[in-house]
Design goal:
about 190 residues, 9 helices
């Protein structure tokens, strides 16, 4: 599976092609944080059956939205600015670019899912709950790649209500998807993985 580092490289290339302010704010390619050595939300979502035959599209658009979120709340991977207001504006631009790409694929279910991710992550950060924000991304990526479930919907309801068990419920859904994916990988011939 591709890593978040691969996704950051693809994002950097795509944003360079966008030109303008966002291209001017790209950090150097070698400065990607160590946390990107494994798969991130974009790679998880792109690895699911809902993204089949459009993996690169899904990976890039989710990298855009995730980078937008990181510009709003944390440590961006490829865009660099010390100006907080500019970071928010560029973050909004990346949300819009990613969601527009997703809408052009006709995946309205994933558009709704990522809109939930954006709002729930914002709510988590208002509550200073970075664990919940991370769990929202994990579960959201699983839902985009594999489809949502009743359990996932219930976990999002807990998050909206500020329930202390929301992060665990979201992670349980993401873990169930991961386990199902690993079980499927174990049954597939190596040539199909």
């Amino acid at each position: 599976m591709r890593t978040a580092r691969n996704g950051a490289d693809a994002l950097r290339t795509a944003l360079r092609a966008e030109d303008g302010t966002v291209a001017e704010l790209l950090g150097p390619g070698g400065s990607v944080p160590e946390r990107l050595d494994g798969p991130g939300p974009a790679q998880i979502a792109a690895g699911g059956p809902r993204a089949q035959s459009r993996e690169a599209d899904y990976e890039l658009l989710i990298e855009m939205i995730h980078e937008g979120s990181r510009l709003h709340y944390g440590e961006p991977s490829v865009v660099r600015t010390e100006d907080r207001d500019l970071a928010l504006l560029v973050g909004d631009q990346l949300y819009a670019l990613g969601l527009a790409r997703l809408a052009s694929l006709g995946d309205l279910e994933a558009v709704a899912e990522l809109a939930d991710v954006i709002s729930l992550v914002a709510q988590a950060h208002v509550a200073a709950d970075s664990e919940l924000a991370d769990a929202v991304w994990e579960a959201g990526a699983a839902a985009v790649g594999w489809g949502a479930s009743a359990e996932h919907g219930a976990a999002k309801t807990l998050a909206r209500a500020g329930d202390a068990g929301a992060a665990a419920a979201l992670r349980a859904y993401a873990l169930a998807v991961r386990d199902a994916r690993l079980d499927l990988d174990d049954r597939l011939p190596r040539a199909l993985q």
